Structure formats: C-alpha cells, structure tokens
Amino acid sequence: MKHFQFPGAALSKYFEAYLRWDRLTAFASFCQGRGIGLANKVAAYHLQDQGLDTVDANRRLGFGDDERVYGCVPFILKDLGIETVQLMTNNPMKVG
Questions:
Q1: Set 23, 60, 66, 79: catalytic member
Q2: Looking at the domain assignment, is residue 43 inside a domain?
C-alpha cells in the first residue's frame, strides 16, 4: 500500500476511514478562506501574523465567522443516489 500525505488532519482522517469502510463517497468543498475570496484571505493571513486567530481576522475584515454556502449539497447527494450520510467533522457547529 502506498503512503499518502494529505494536507490537514480532517482530510487524513477521511482517508483513514476510507481504508476501513467498504463503501465511501466523499463530498468535499475546498472553499479555502471560509468563502471570503483570495485577496481577503491574504489580508486575513496578515492579521493572523499579528496575533489574531482565523475567526477574529475575518471579523476584523467585516466578514462573518464562515461565509461558505452549502445549499447545493442536498441536491448533489440526491443526484448521486445517496440517502444517508455519516458526517466527519471536528466542528460541531457544522452539524445542523
């Protein structure tokens, strides 16, 4: 088996689960910057270099905690014929 190194602990945990489960479909939204756009992400990085965490930096720039939108996910899952999901997250705020 090849060893893969993936960015981020969450993605690594997904692939660990992939090796354990018989069938697994992954839907990942790689919306870097919490939906604030590249230029604002760079500005947030600058604020983080000054000591702010990600959320506080985004708030300082006038954004909410997370500007990403997931409204399309139920439609994608339905189109793929997926009726049940097991959510893997380290953020309980994502469960709703």
A1: 66
A2: yes
Residue 20 is a catalytic residue: no
User: 82 CB contacts (<8 Å, ≥6 apart)?
Assistant: 25
- With a cut of 50, say whether residue 42 has pLDDT above it: yes
Range of the domain at 60: 32-69
Q: Which of the residue ranges 11-15, 39-43, 64-68 has the most confident prediction, judged by mean pLDDT?
A: 39-43
Residue 59 in domain: yes
Question: What are the tokens at 44?
Answer: 């947030």
pTM: 0.52
The answer to whether residue 66 is catalytic is yes
Distance of CA 7 to the CA centre of its chain: 12
Catalytic position from the list 53, 60, 65, 68: 68
Domain total in the chain: 1
22 domain-assigned: no
